[in-house]
Design brief:
Helix content: 55-70%
Low-confidence stretches: none
Largest sheet: none
Shape: globular
Length: about 100
């Protein structure tokens, strides 16, 4: 679920702003709960951050598992960010807070 939702978050700009897709998770949820897509996206981001914290807390007793999880998540997000298909640089999204 975590990877799927993170991919949805990273894809939302290219799908819904640049593209004309209107059947993704975030847009469907925004229609269902009558919130703006931006509100849903913000909420999704916070939910996934919380889920990552929960996973890290669960893995805290196993340093190797925690290290593997952190490396995987860092690599996954960096890979998705660096792939031009998401077009995140067009809107100023940078990893680590600076370019």
């Amino acid at each position: 679920m975590l990877i799927n939702r993170i991919n949805g978050i990273l894809s939302s700009y290219k799908e819904s702003v640049v593209g004309a897709e209107n059947n993704n998770y975030e847009l469907g949820l925004s229609r269902m709960i009558r919130h703006t897509p931006v509100e849903v996206l913000r909420s999704e981001c916070q939910e996934q951050i919380g889920l990552m914290r929960d996973v890290r807390g669960t893995l805290a007793g196993s340093p190797l598992a925690l290290e593997i999880f952190n490396e995987f998540m860092d690599g996954y997000i960096a890979f998705q960010y660096s792939h031009s298909r998401h077009r995140l640089r067009e809107i100023g999204v940078v990893l680590g807070g600076k370019e």
